[in-house]
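The methods section describes the discrete structure representation at length, but only in general terms. What matters is that the chain and its backbone geometry are given together, residue for residue. For illustration, here is how one protein appears when written out as sequence plus structure tokens:
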Amino acid sequence: MAQTPFSAPTIFDRPLLRHRLARSRSGGGDFLLDRAAEDAVDRLAPVQRQFRDILDLGTGSPALADRLAGALPEARLVRSARIAEAADPRWLTVVGDEELLPFGPERFDLIMSVLALHVVNDLPGALVQIRRALKPDGLVIACLMGGQSLTELRAALTQAEIELTGGASPRVAPFSDLRDLGSLMQRAALALPVTDSEPLTVRYSSMFGLLDDLRAMGATNAMVERSRKPMSRSLLLRAAAIYAERFSDPDGRVRATFELVWLSGWAPHESQQKPLKPGSAKMRLADALNAKSME
């Protein structure tokens, strides 16, 4: 894992991620991104604000930008894509990187990102840059893959490789824990941070159907410390057998877990609600709850 004394560890091969995204086919693998993009826009409904300058940061397809353009047609929408895309008159597209935002401070009053930030090498740094790019009292909503994602695939590949070779190389990327992400938002000085997770179970006829979808998403192994040798046929077949033995339903189909972790927070502003100082309460908790004191 490459690291300098003052840099974040390099976990992901970012150029390879962009290459695989460019090569990924549209179709079967879009279902997860489409679902998350729809949910992201739905999360704006309770927010009593008008958003004029919006950034779609790193989302792997125009799915989010398309929904934002439909829901907020008067907004000025910028899409920061990892790779060059066909122009769309509804938004400005720039080729950028979530690890190095090409925008000045206080540029947007809403930044949204779907299934992109979990593969940055310096997530704390990315969150700091997002906060700086927000106008005061601006909002960020992001969806990342959480730590429970693809646990079945990780377990099957690890067990199969240990059985056949006596060791295992990293095959499935590590994803952040929900509690860790909440702490990172606080470190980035985002106000009123909120995190929640949504486990999503997808069923396949076999492990190979899952691998096909991951390829279609451009989401196959891009870790720096991955093995450069292609997985052998014997390893894949043994992993598929283990997967079926451990993670199948009575009808023979296998389960794959995708944990969608949601983050939201605000750029600080003096109008925002502040937590009370310890000891400043005017009423006992028992009185507030109308509870009877115990004698």
